[in-house]
Amino acid sequence: MTAKTCNFPGARLVPSPNHGERAGGRKPDMILLHYTGMETAVSALDWLCREESQVSSHYFIHEDGRVDQLVAEERRAWHAGKSFWKGETDINSCSIGIEIANAGHPGGLPEFPEAQIEAVVELCRDCGRRWSIAPERVLAHSDVAPIRKVDPGEKFPWDVLHAKGVGHWVEPTPVGGGRFFQRGDRGQPVEAIQSLLSLYGYGIEVTGDFCEKTEGAVAAFQRHFRQARVDGIADVSTIDTLHRLLSALPNLSV
Asked: CA 227 to CA 160: how far, in whole Å?
């Protein structure tokens, strides 16, 4: 990768030393979106390019929509950490990591500027076309690392991305009343919820015990797909939204 040969034509080369070989010659089949969670874009970009940080991403998107490429897509950037999705534990080897400049939860969850989201869409479309990445494989860092990570957060406009051809989405069922399940509950209904979450890809065991990990997976799901209330409680809205997402997947019957 050189300044003239960035994988994404609109990118500027800002190389990070933090990368390696993709395990087993893997090709990326997932896009993972992050927020930087730092006060400024300048400090976040500097950190991703410092060898001492031992972190990186393939791309960095500024608030004004400028895109920097830090690591060649053929290489394994270090952005996901300890993660899991659909049986895969080496998420770095199968993903393209995109850091989006945003102060996130530490900075009060500021809105993502329109120009920045337009750049996210364009970049994801380009990566998706070149690597044949399925819509349901465009994920949040919080999806693959529930509890540990919460980015890009509940204000990230996944619905806007989907309307422009990026990601998997259904209109969430409105929050309302009805039966719900929460930490400490046990039994067959909890097993069913865990099974649905696992089927979609979340790293959760089917035990029938609504434990901390189950609560974390439910909250991660809500943060991505049912943003109106993120509380880790599996209510009717959450369960119905999850079921309809699964039903919308190709070659999957639930």
From this structure: 13
- pLDDT tens digits along 184-243: 999 999 999 999 999 999 999 999 999 999 999 999 999 999 999 999 999 999 999 999
174-to-126, 171, 237, 254 alpha-carbon distances in Å: 33, 9, 6, 21
Catalytic residues: 99
Coil vs helix vs strand at 39: coil
In this prediction, residues 103-115 reach a mean pLDDT of 97
Residues 6+ apart with CB under 8 A from 20: 75, 76, 78
Count how many residues are written for the chain.
254
pTM here? 0.96
Report how far residue 82's alpha carbon sits from residue 26's, in angstroms, rounded to the nearest whole number: 18
CB atoms within 10 A of CB 23: 11
